Amino acid sequence: xxxxxxxxVAGEIPCYKVAEDDKFFAFLDINPMVKGHTLxxxxxxxxxxxxxxxxDLAAMQVFAKKVALAIGKAFPCKKVGxxxxxxxxxxAHIHLxxxxxxxxxxxxxxxxxxxxxxxxxxxxxxxxxM
Length: 130
Ligand code: 5GP
Fold this sequence. Notes:
By secondary structure, the chain is an alpha+beta fold. The chain contains 3 helices and 5 strands, in the order αβββαββα. It is globular and about 35 Å long. It starts with a helix and ends with a helix. The active site is at residue 93.
Protein backbone atom coordinates (compact mmCIF):
# COMPACT_ATOMS: atom_id res chain seq x y z
CA UNK A 1 0.00 0.00 0.00
CA UNK A 2 1.24 3.49 -0.86
CA UNK A 3 2.55 5.62 2.00
CA UNK A 4 0.67 8.76 3.00
CA UNK A 5 3.50 10.79 1.44
CA UNK A 6 3.24 8.91 -1.88
CA UNK A 7 -0.49 9.67 -1.84
CA UNK A 8 0.36 13.35 -1.30
CA VAL A 9 2.76 13.29 -4.29
CA ALA A 10 0.03 11.60 -6.37
CA GLY A 11 -2.43 14.35 -5.41
CA GLU A 12 -4.76 11.90 -3.64
CA ILE A 13 -4.26 13.72 -0.33
CA PRO A 14 -3.99 17.51 -0.28
CA CYS A 15 -0.89 19.34 0.89
CA TYR A 16 0.65 22.78 0.84
CA LYS A 17 3.24 22.24 -1.87
CA VAL A 18 6.45 24.24 -1.84
CA ALA A 19 8.50 22.74 -4.69
CA GLU A 20 8.85 19.69 -6.91
CA ASP A 21 11.16 18.23 -9.53
CA ASP A 22 11.15 14.86 -11.27
CA LYS A 23 12.55 13.02 -8.21
CA PHE A 24 11.74 15.08 -5.12
CA PHE A 25 8.84 16.93 -3.53
CA ALA A 26 8.66 19.56 -0.76
CA PHE A 27 5.55 20.49 1.23
CA LEU A 28 4.66 22.03 4.58
CA ASP A 29 4.57 19.83 7.65
CA ILE A 30 0.95 19.74 8.79
CA ASN A 31 2.03 20.00 12.47
CA PRO A 32 4.71 22.68 12.18
CA MET A 33 7.17 23.47 14.94
CA VAL A 34 7.49 27.01 13.52
CA LYS A 35 6.21 28.84 10.44
CA GLY A 36 8.09 27.53 7.41
CA HIS A 37 8.61 23.96 8.71
CA THR A 38 8.89 21.99 5.48
CA LEU A 39 9.35 18.32 4.56
CA UNK A 40 11.46 17.17 1.61
CA UNK A 41 10.81 13.66 0.31
CA UNK A 42 11.95 11.47 -2.55
CA UNK A 43 9.16 10.44 -4.91
CA UNK A 44 10.68 6.97 -4.74
CA UNK A 45 9.02 5.09 -1.90
CA UNK A 46 11.81 4.29 0.56
CA UNK A 47 11.28 4.14 4.31
CA UNK A 48 14.80 4.64 5.68
CA UNK A 49 16.66 7.59 4.18
CA UNK A 50 19.97 5.73 4.40
CA UNK A 51 18.58 3.00 2.15
CA UNK A 52 18.61 5.50 -0.75
CA UNK A 53 21.43 5.04 -3.23
CA UNK A 54 24.41 7.37 -2.80
CA UNK A 55 23.36 9.31 -5.90
CA ASP A 56 19.74 9.69 -4.80
CA LEU A 57 20.71 10.71 -1.27
CA ALA A 58 23.13 13.32 -2.63
CA ALA A 59 20.52 14.63 -5.07
CA MET A 60 17.91 14.81 -2.30
CA GLN A 61 20.29 16.87 -0.20
CA VAL A 62 20.94 19.26 -3.10
CA PHE A 63 17.17 19.64 -3.62
CA ALA A 64 16.73 20.23 0.14
CA LYS A 65 19.44 22.89 0.00
CA LYS A 66 17.47 24.88 -2.60
CA VAL A 67 14.35 24.64 -0.47
CA ALA A 68 16.27 25.58 2.70
CA LEU A 69 17.75 28.69 1.07
CA ALA A 70 14.26 29.74 -0.03
CA ILE A 71 12.87 29.13 3.48
CA GLY A 72 15.63 31.34 4.88
CA LYS A 73 14.70 34.13 2.47
CA ALA A 74 10.98 33.84 3.15
CA PHE A 75 11.36 33.46 6.93
CA PRO A 76 14.41 35.33 8.20
CA CYS A 77 16.12 33.20 10.85
CA LYS A 78 19.54 32.43 12.27
CA LYS A 79 19.84 29.28 10.15
CA VAL A 80 17.55 26.67 8.66
CA GLY A 81 17.99 23.49 10.67
CA UNK A 82 17.72 20.04 9.18
CA UNK A 83 16.60 16.88 10.92
CA UNK A 84 15.77 13.33 9.94
CA UNK A 85 13.63 11.22 12.27
CA UNK A 86 11.25 9.07 10.29
CA UNK A 87 9.72 7.40 13.32
CA UNK A 88 6.14 8.30 12.38
CA UNK A 89 5.86 8.11 8.59
CA UNK A 90 7.67 5.22 6.81
CA UNK A 91 8.67 7.32 3.80
CA ALA A 92 12.06 9.04 3.95
CA HIS A 93 11.87 12.77 4.69
CA ILE A 94 14.07 15.68 5.73
CA HIS A 95 12.59 18.27 8.09
CA LEU A 96 13.71 21.84 7.29
CA UNK A 97 13.02 24.25 10.15
CA UNK A 98 13.85 27.97 10.30
CA UNK A 99 15.56 28.46 13.67
CA UNK A 100 15.74 31.47 15.93
CA UNK A 101 17.24 29.27 18.65
CA UNK A 102 18.12 25.66 19.37
CA UNK A 103 14.74 25.24 21.06
CA UNK A 104 13.03 25.48 17.64
CA UNK A 105 14.44 22.02 16.84
CA UNK A 106 12.89 20.27 19.84
CA UNK A 107 10.38 17.84 18.39
CA UNK A 108 8.74 17.50 21.79
CA UNK A 109 7.60 21.17 21.57
CA UNK A 110 3.89 21.84 21.14
CA UNK A 111 3.08 22.25 17.45
CA UNK A 112 1.59 25.38 15.85
CA UNK A 113 -2.06 25.41 14.86
CA UNK A 114 -2.32 27.33 11.58
CA UNK A 115 -5.34 28.12 9.42
CA UNK A 116 -5.55 26.97 5.77
CA UNK A 117 -4.99 30.59 4.72
CA UNK A 118 -1.83 30.79 6.82
CA UNK A 119 -0.48 27.51 5.38
CA UNK A 120 -1.24 28.73 1.84
CA UNK A 121 0.54 32.02 2.45
CA UNK A 122 3.61 30.31 3.95
CA UNK A 123 3.91 27.85 1.05
CA UNK A 124 3.60 30.61 -1.54
CA UNK A 125 6.19 32.78 0.23
CA UNK A 126 8.72 29.91 0.14
CA UNK A 127 7.87 28.99 -3.48
CA UNK A 128 8.25 32.60 -4.53
CA UNK A 129 11.72 32.71 -2.91
CA MET A 130 12.95 29.73 -4.97
P1 5GP B 1 8.71 11.73 11.61
O1 5GP B 1 8.33 10.50 10.81
O2 5GP B 1 9.88 12.46 11.03
O3 5GP B 1 8.87 11.44 13.07
O4 5GP B 1 7.47 12.73 11.55
C1 5GP B 1 6.63 12.80 10.42
C2 5GP B 1 6.20 14.23 10.19
O5 5GP B 1 5.26 14.21 9.13
C3 5GP B 1 5.53 14.92 11.39
O6 5GP B 1 6.17 16.13 11.65
C4 5GP B 1 4.08 15.09 10.93
O7 5GP B 1 3.51 16.30 11.38
C5 5GP B 1 4.19 15.08 9.42
N1 5GP B 1 3.01 14.53 8.79
C6 5GP B 1 2.41 13.34 9.09
N2 5GP B 1 1.34 13.14 8.29
C7 5GP B 1 1.27 14.21 7.47
C8 5GP B 1 0.37 14.58 6.41
O8 5GP B 1 -0.58 13.87 6.08
N3 5GP B 1 0.62 15.74 5.78
C9 5GP B 1 1.67 16.56 6.12
N4 5GP B 1 1.81 17.69 5.43
N5 5GP B 1 2.53 16.26 7.11
C10 5GP B 1 2.33 15.09 7.78
